[in-house]
Structure formats: structure tokens, C-alpha cells
Recover the amino acids of this structure.
């Protein structure tokens, strides 16, 4: 009986993993397709499609996306930590309301947000702001709830006795922030920042309203391209950006982000 | 020699209108090991936090070496602090933890290294400097916390139940070690605990707190020998507390209040208080009158029946019911005269009048 259960358990795991990874594997396979149709023939493959990625057509959007995502990660990281510090650590008056306000963008569909931002910028006469500045601002609004929440959780789990111990050892408030509080919440903040980067890098529904023609982010370029053609370049683009995101996650994990947070320890 | 290190003058503290510490007056001389002892909620931790500066007194003044501390923030008080949960910085090595206080003061690298070495040696942890706290046992972590607190050479070390997370064996060993370290450093220790044995074992002086006030303070022996109130007698050590009334017949006699006729008790302590309500007799100062000739000095004699015997190893704990349904706990050595008391047997108990302590309520 228990053998049957064990078998079913592992079968379920394998099925779930297959379900998740198979489409990815198909995309990876398709990116090596020897013909311009999206196919996969194991004994005939080519790197040609990846060569195409170095053309400006793909390179420019990729660099723009990286630039925006990096700025979004930095800005939302700084703002998120400051907000969490005020709300959880200092418990400023109305901190609960403040937190609710910061999390509220989560409850509005991204498409609605996109339309709202475009309308808002037009009404106040800042159409010139559309494009990269608007994208950065919008992505920060989108990512801030996650960063703030993660920083706040780290701060809430922070043992106040550590702060008191440092204080009794003569550490001023600035010194305590620098040497105790920030290092302790670093894993949470780094995972928040990684998330902000990914959210910005992959975003479509919000960005689609804010990009300028000819100056589009990578996902929007992909969408535009898909409207007219479907060929293995698409697959190559997706594989490349997947690899890029995984590299980013790996790098942040190396400096003490995700996995430390997931496994609940610092070092 | 006995300069006052810490002085609390009419210190009170309320939280949300509820008084936790009431009009506390306390002087702690330099170099003394003082324990603030009491049950949870008695205000002892609040008192410690006020000395450390984390709580501001609602009224009164806290002075360190004569200087009022009310406007001095905790980081400027130069007091060491040891926490129950150690509160080691998990992202720093042992050496970085211990050196933290000096580093914050801008001490030079080489001086810090020397001080860290000395502090770690005094808690016998040399050789573990490069480890992270996670890789240490509870006892080692507590030593690191201690080393960290003493490394900047504070004038006073405050300890908040530092041993209560350790197991019994280690706790007992650490008591002796803590006392030795304190004597070596000549530092004033203020030690908060609810464990009366711990306080008895280490302290030069014990301050017993109850419901926000000092119930009694003094040397451990004198508190044990002469508890001032019923609470202290009950909290410190084990005791039989019996309802009594001062006898009209004169000093030296008490009436033990029981259902039937009052039992007369002789006590050497009746002169001390006018409103006697109870007396305390320690279980170990009651003797079994197995050999009346030897125990001639025990002027109080009570007959009773053994209701229960608990073998504690070195001692036997007897529960003896005397007339009127009063129960007395008696501790006797296990090997006493080779005769083991029997359950339900009748015994005579002998008590020296010196041992009948009078309590006010």
C-alpha cells in the first residue's frame, strides 16, 4: 500500500515538473530550429537565430529593458527600505494606513493602471514624459509593494534585542543602522530588489501603454514582432532573456539574497 | 572603598497608567554583585531597563556615580548588558561581536584585538574567535555575550536572566564562573533573575522585589535567615508558614491558630514586630525527636502523623500533620540514625525557638 502511495507521490511530482518545464524545453529546442518554421529536429540544428539577436533590432530593446529594470530595482529598493523602516521600525503615526496605501497598486489591474497613467500624464500636460521616464515611474509603482513588503517582513523579524545590545555597546543610531539593521535585513531587501528587476524586465501590460514607438522594451518588441511573424528568432529571444534572468537571480543569490531568505538564515 | 555606582531615587514607572515600579530607592555600591530577585511581573526587568536607559522613569532619578542619567541615552551610559537570548549579532564572527563596542567608539584595530583577546580569555573562549555565533553551543554563546559586554570595560554590567536558557548542569557551573569573573574584574554586576537559588549562590546582596516595590534587601544569608515578610519567606527557599497571634502572656510566646485549642509556640523573635500574623519555620530546622535526650534544647514539641514521604536522595521530605489539621513539611537527612520514618507513624517534632521566625504581612 505504502509503495503505491510513494509511487503516486513521485509520479505527481514528475508530472508537475514536466508540465512546468516542457513548454520551456520546447522553446529552447525551437530556438535551434534549422528552418524558419518553429520545429525541432534533433539531428539538425543551428545557432544562426542566436546570431540574429546581436542585431540592433533586438539588442537595443534588450539594453533599454536592462537599463529600466536596473533603475527600477535601485529606486524601488531604496524607497522600499525607507518605507519599511518608517512603518515597521519607527512605527510613525498612521503606519498601517501607509502600508495599505503602498500595497494598494496590487489591487488595480495593470491595464487599468497603464491607461490611468497615460491619461494622467496627458491631463497634466506631461506627454513628453512618456517613454523611458514614465516606464521607470510606472514599474517602480508596480514593484514597490513587493520590495516594501519583503523589507518590512525582514524588519518585523528583526530581534529588537540586537538593536538594544548594540545601543548598550555605545552604537549611535546611524551606526546601528549601518552595522546591525541593514546587514540583518539585507537578504530580504535583496530578494525584493531581484523581484523588482524581474517584474520590470518582463512587464508587458503596463509597458504597452507607455513605450514610445521605436524605443520599446524587449517584451514589447517581442509582442510587436509576433503580430507579423512567428519564427525561431522568437524562441531564441525568449531563451536568451530566460538565461539572463536566471543569471541575475544567481548573482543576487551569491550576494546573499533569495536562498538565504528562503532558508530563513543569514549566513 | 564603597562608592555608590548606581543610585535609584524614588523611581516610579507606569505603563498605560498601570504602575509597575513604585517609588523605588536603591543604592548599589561599586564592585558588588547585586541580584534583583522576584517573580515575573514584579518590575525587576523594568527596573533594569530603566538603569540601562531603554525605559524612562515616570518619576524619580537614576544616578550613575552621582550623575543623573535621565537625559542620557542608552548608548552614552557606558553600561554593559547581557540578554537572556544572548542577542549576538549573527552576521559577525565571535571576535567582531566582542570587538563591536570598541569599534563603535573608534578604538584602533590593534587595541581592539588586544581587548577582544583578553575578554575571550576571561570567559575561556580563546580559540573560537573566528567562528560565527550559529556554530556555538548555548553556553558558548552566553560566554560570547558576556565577553562582548565586558570588552569595552563598562562601569556596570547589567544581566537580564542570562542563564535561564541553559540546561541545569551548565547553569550551575556558570553561576560559579560568573561570580569568579565578576570578582576578577571587580565590576559591579546587577543581576536580574526569578531563580532564588541562582541569586543566593552568586550575590553579595539580594534585592527582593514584589509588586513593584522592594520587599527586602540584604545579604543572601540574612534574607534566608530573617525573611521580613510572608512573601519573602515563601519566595526564598522553602518554608512552613503558619498563622499565629502574639500571646497576651508576654514576649517569647505565640499562639498557633488552629481549629481546636491554640498551640503555644516559643519564639526568640517576638519582640521585633507588634502585628504578628504568621510565622515561618524552615523545613530543615524541624527535627524528628527520635532521641529526646539529645534534642533537649528544642523547646517546642509537636506531635503529628507522617502523611507522606518523598525521597529526595540525600534528604527525605516528610509531610507531617499536627493537631488541628495543620501540615508541616520536614526535611531530614536520609541516613539519619539508620532509622527510616514510617508512613502513618506518630512522631514528635522538635523546633528551636530561634528557628520560629516572625513575619509581618
Amino acid at each position: 500500500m505504502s509503495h503505491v502511495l510513494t509511487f503516486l507521490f513521485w509520479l505527481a511530482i514528475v508530472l508537475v515538473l514536466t508540465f512546468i518545464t516542457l513548454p520551456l524545453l520546447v522553446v529552447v529546442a525551437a530556438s535551434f530550429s534549422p528552418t524558419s518554421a518553429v520545429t525541432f529536429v534533433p539531428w539538425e540544428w543551428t545557432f544562426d537565430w542566436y546570431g540574429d539577436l546581436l542585431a540592433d533590432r533586438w539588442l537595443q530593446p534588450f539594453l533599454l529593458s536592462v537599463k529600466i529594470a536596473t533603475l527600477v530595482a535601485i529606486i524601488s529598493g531604496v524607497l522600499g527600505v525607507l518605507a519599511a523602516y518608517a512603518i515597521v521600525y519607527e512605527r510613525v503615526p498612521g503606519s498601517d494606513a501607509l502600508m495599505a496605501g503602498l500595497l494598494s497598486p496590487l489591487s488595480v489591474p495593470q491595464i487599468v493602471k497603464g491607461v490611468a497613467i497615460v491619461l494622467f500624464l496627458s491631463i497634466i500636460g506631461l506627454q513628453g514624459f512618456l517613454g523611458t521616464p514614465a516606464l521607470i515611474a510606472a514599474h517602480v509603482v508596480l514593484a514597490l509593494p513587493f520590495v516594501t513588503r519583503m523589507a518590512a517582513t525582514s524588519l518585523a523579524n528583526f530581534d529588537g534585542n540586537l538593536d538594544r545590545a548594540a545601543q548598550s555597546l555605545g552604537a549611535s543610531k546611524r551606526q546601528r543602522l549601518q552595522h546591525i539593521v541593514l546587514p540583518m535585513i539585507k537578504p530580504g531587501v535583496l530578494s525584493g530588489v531581484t523581484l523588482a528587476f524581474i517584474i520590470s524586465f518582463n512587464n508587458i501590460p503596463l509597458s504597452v501603454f507607455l513605450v514610445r514607438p521605436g524605443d520599446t522594451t524587449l517584451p514589447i518588441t517581442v509582442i510587436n514582432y509576433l503580430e507579423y511573424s512567428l519564427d525561431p528568432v522568437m524562441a531564441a529571444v525568449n531563451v536568451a532573456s530566460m538565461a539572463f534572468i536566471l543569471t541575475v537571480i544567481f548573482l543576487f543569490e551569491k550576494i546573499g539574497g533569495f536562498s538565504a531568505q528562503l532558508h530563513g538564515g543569514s549566513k | 572603598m564603597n562608592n555608590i555606582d548606581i543610585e535609584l531615587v524614588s523611581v516610579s514607572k507606569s505603563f498605560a497608567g498601570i504602575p509597575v515600579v513604585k517609588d523605588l530607592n536603591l543604592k548599589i555600591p561599586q564592585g558588588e554583585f547585586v541580584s534583583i530577585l522576584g517573580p515575573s511581573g514584579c518590575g525587576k526587568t523594568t527596573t533594569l531597563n530603566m538603569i540601562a536607559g531603554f525605559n524612562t522613569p515616570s518619576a524619580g532619578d537614576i544616578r550613575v556615580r552621582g550623575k543623573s542619567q535621565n537625559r542620557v541615552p542608552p548608548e552614552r551610559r557606558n553600561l554593559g548588558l547581557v540578554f537572556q537570548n544572548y542577542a549576538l549579532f549573527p552576521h559577525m564572527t565571535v571576535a567582531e561581536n566582542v570587538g563591536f563596542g570598541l569599534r563603535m567608539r573608534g578604538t584602533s584595530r590593534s587595541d581592539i584585538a588586544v581587548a577582544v583577546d583578553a575578554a575571550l580569555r576571561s570567559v575561556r573562549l580563546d580559540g573560537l574567535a573566528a567562528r560565527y555565533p550559529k556554530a556555538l553551543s548555548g553556553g558558548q554563546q552566553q560566554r560570547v555575550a558576556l565577553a562582548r559586554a565586558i570588552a569595552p570595560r563598562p562601569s556596570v554590567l547589567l544581566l537580564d536572566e542570562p542563564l535561564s536558557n541553559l540546561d541545569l548542569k551548565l547553569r550551575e557551573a556558570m553561576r560559579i564562573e560568573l561570580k569568579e569573573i565578576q570578582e576578577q574584574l571587580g565590576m559591579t554586576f546587577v543581576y536580574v533573575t526569578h531563580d532564588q537559588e541562582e541569586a543566593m549562590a552568586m550575590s553579595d546582596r539580594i534585592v527582593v522585589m514584589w509588586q513593584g516595590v522592594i520587599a527586602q534587601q540584604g545579604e543572601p544569608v540574612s534574607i534566608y535567615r530573617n525573611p521580613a515578610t510572608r512573601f519573602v519567606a515563601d519566595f526564598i527557599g522553602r518554608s512552613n508558614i503558619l498563622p499565629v497571634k502574639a500571646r497576651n502572656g508576654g514576649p517569647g510566646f505565640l499562639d498557633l491558630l488552629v481549629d481546636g485549642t491554640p498551640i503555644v509556640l516559643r519564639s526568640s523573635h517576638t519582640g521585633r514586630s507588634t502585628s504578628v500574623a504568621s510565622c515561618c519555620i524552615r523545613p530543615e530546622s524541624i527535627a524528628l525527636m527520635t532521641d529526646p535526650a539529645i534534642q533537649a534544647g528544642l523547646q517546642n514539641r509537636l506531635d503529628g502523623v507522617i502523611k507522606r514521604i518523598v525521597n529526595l536522595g540525600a534528604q527525605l521530605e516528610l509531610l507531617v500533620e499536627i493537631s488541628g489539621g495543620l501540615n508541616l513539611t520536614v526535611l531530614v537527612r536520609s541516613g539519619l540514625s539508620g532509622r527510616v520514618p514510617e508512613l502513618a507513624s506518630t512522631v514528635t517534632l522538635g523546633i528551636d525557638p530561634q528557628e520560629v521566625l516572625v513575619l509581618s504581612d
In short: The two ends of chain A are 42 Å apart (CA to CA). Residues 261-267 of chain A have pLDDT under 50 and may be disordered. DSSP finds twelve helices and no strands in chain A. The domain at 54-262 of chain A is CATH 1.10.3720.10 (MetI-like fold).
